[in-house]
Amino acid sequence: MSFRWNFIQPEHEEVAPRLQEELGIPWSIAHLLAIRKITTFEEAKKFFRPSLSQLHDPFLMKGMEAGSDRLASAVRTGETVVVYGDYDVDGTTATSIVYTFLKNFGLNVRYYIPHRFKEGYGISEDGIDFAGEIGATLIVSVDCGITAVEETEYAKSKGIELIICDHHNAGEVIPDAVAVLDPKQPGCPYPFKGLSGAGVGFKLVQATLVKLGLQPEIAHPYLDLVAISIASDIVPIVDENRILMREGLKRINAEPRPGVKALMDRIQLRDAEISTSHIVFSLGPRINAAGRMGDAAVAVSLLIAETGHEAHDYAARLEKINFQRRDTDTKTMSQALLQLDQNMDPDNCSSLVLHDPDWHLGVIGIVASRLVDIYCRPTIMLSTVDGLIKGSARSINGFNIYEALKQCDDLLVQFGGHKYAAGLTIAEDQLANFIERFQQITNETLSEQDFKPELMIDAELALSEITPRFWKLLKQFEPYGPNNLKPVFVSRNIQVAGRPSIVGQGHLKMRISQDGAGVMDSIGFNMKKFAEPLLNAGNAPVDIAYAIEENTWNNRTTLQLRLKDIHINGDLVP
Predict the structure, then answer these.
(1) What pTM does this model have?
(2) SS3 238
(3) Are residues 378 and 362 both part of a single domain?
């Protein structure tokens, strides 16, 4: 039930005391800066005061001169252009940015999103044929294309040029396009490598505005879509992404575009202060649902909608698709748990590989992630499509699932991904061999310790340190996300005031104090299982892990602790 607590340490121990003295801030805040690799007064100043003026010059990106020149030429001469995107949130937001930008100049611009199951990821000949049929002379790909070497040649054979905007790792050969924009490609001097696909598209728009003799600030209305892409694509929220995310959230809260507003209204978020979490858990999954269930075009239609009426129609359609996705997700999860119960003992396995020919490809990645959360084992979910077995792999901390698949490449038709998530395709006659090989790799690589879930802790804190000034400083760490996660603290020897209670759908609520100080409210979502051990412990002190948040009730805002874990008498709760 409880986690192992792993306290994060900065690379250099002397940084926190120095920042504490130079900035005149509490040690805990200085420690948070140090573990985020902020080491100087100037770096801290930029961190606490991020602004659009700190964004990097788009022309530092390799290929940007040629790409923006070509796109500006298309604008001036009124060419027919196709914006070719991907079916996830990053791809649909990126498509919407470049499409709307060109549409505003009066171009005959169309967008093309490949069907997830019929075409799969990336630039396809079908998409290029579509561009040829409508007389397009230029394709701008977003969030895909860095490995489209043969497809680029096919497009050229049809008289169509390509500008490729991507943020994935490059292959051994770079496509021979008019321009390839990808900060991760070899030889690119761009100082920040973590942009989302929409972020790269945004940079192209900025540079094209300069080539047209206009101000790059004209691109700022697209920052809401950039923020949605950053939060949803799990890219690091540091450097430029943190600035783009912060400014994009401001725009979403102040003046959301019709499509975003309609979606917020549909799920009753209009009165909330939209944060990264709202995008990750509410807006993003709904935008993503269309692509997961097959055709992402409705997501783009929502994001480019010009009127509230039109946007609300698409938001309703998207919500209906999301309900279908949820039902499929729930059914698949139940079937996966049943398969585990009947065929294997997860506690005695180093990895989980499950196959059902009828599982929906759009949800198996989500289910794999949930199984990782439950069992703390690398998990692969597989389905069968047109005689091939396709699947999604998810991993645990410390196990590189991409490298593990690389050791099985002789058994795979294809695979791709990164350290914690990957996709793969297997011939049906190689499935048994693959399962055996993969389990052998995890058996040899992982130990019992790896299967014990851990919780990363930023710092130990006394409750008396949570003052208004501390909270004001902590708020400036937002927006949160990868590489800048919401800080998790530990406080020890905590007394529970009164009896813990269960509220809502199994949430633990209790009032706590420390060393006779004032009482604070705390809540632990889905932590009802801790209630009985706490009652059995009587007045024994407990140690808690938590994040700090604001809670507004009856127009009164107070701080409360969002519980993450509880240790009783210094021990994990079994």
Answers:
(1) 0.90
(2) coil
(3) yes
